[in-house]
Design goal:
Order of helices and strands: EEEHEHEHEHHEH
Structural class: alpha/beta
Strand content: 5-15%
Number of strands: 7
Shape: globular
Distance between the termini: 16 Å
Radius of gyration: 18 Å
Length: 213
């Protein structure tokens, strides 16, 4: 169910309105009230090379009973690569997608590079509950080595590597002070199984008292 379309009159709204006694969407055109599930979302972020994709493959079996793990880059295609307003269309689409998945009763773990301001300011933010952020980070020399070892088709030249290392340093310095804060997990020497367990514990704690789907 696309929460951006009124099930009463079929109108599509760009700025969804949630009732004060929500979670209930209120159509500005016909006044239809549509209850919906507003679940927490988990953003597993961090610079390239810190291990997000590797960990994501191991999270699905570990979290299959409580959450849906999705890779952000699966929608990095076509018009969604539009850089306008800090790739707003891409971010907005992911919030809508997460909200649709949430209607099944399972929260989303979104794996991909994102920082709070890119999601928190969007109108579609009202579709989901608290967004928890955890960034995998690493020592610069280790990330540099991992990125240089990637296949040539992935396009990791020295300029792009330098930009990634700058983002890594920025996250390590500023992540915990952002609003909402971004927790940090240094994967430089952490075994994969320990990283997976830390992320699993983080998600399960954030799910709190959610009942069965």
């Amino acid at each position: 169910m696309d929460l951006q379309i009124c099930v009463g009159c079929g109108d599509r709204f760009d700025r969804p309105v949630v009732a004060p006694d929500g979670p209930v969407l209120v159509c500005a055109r016909c006044g239809h009230r549509q209850p919906f599930r507003r679940l927490p979302m988990f953003a597993l972020t961090g610079p390239s090379g810190a291990g997000k994709s590797t960990i994501a493959r191991l999270l699905t079996p570990a979290l299959g009973d409580v959450a849906v793990v999705v890779e952000q880059d699966v929608l990095w295609t076509g018009g969604l690569q539009d850089p306008a307003d800090d790739f707003r269309a891409f971010r907005s689409t992911w919030l809508r997608m997460a909200a649709m998945i949430h209607q099944s009763g399972r929260p989303v773990v979104l794996v991909g590079t994102v920082v709070p301001v890119q999601l928190e300011r969007l109108p579609e933010r009202v579709f989901v509950g608290d967004i928890h952020y955890l960034a995998l980070v690493g020592a610069p020399e280790v990330l540099r080595s991992r990125l240089r070892d990637r296949p040539a088709w992935r396009g990791w030249d020295e300029e792009r590597i330098a930009e990634t290392l700058e983002f890594n340093d920025w996250l390590r310095s500023n992540g915990p002070t952002l609003e909402p804060p971004v927790d940090l997990l240094d994967t430089t020497t952490l075994p994969y199984e320990d990283t997976v367990q830390t992320v699993v514990d983080w998600v399960r704690k954030g799910c709190g008292d959610l009942g069965p789907p």
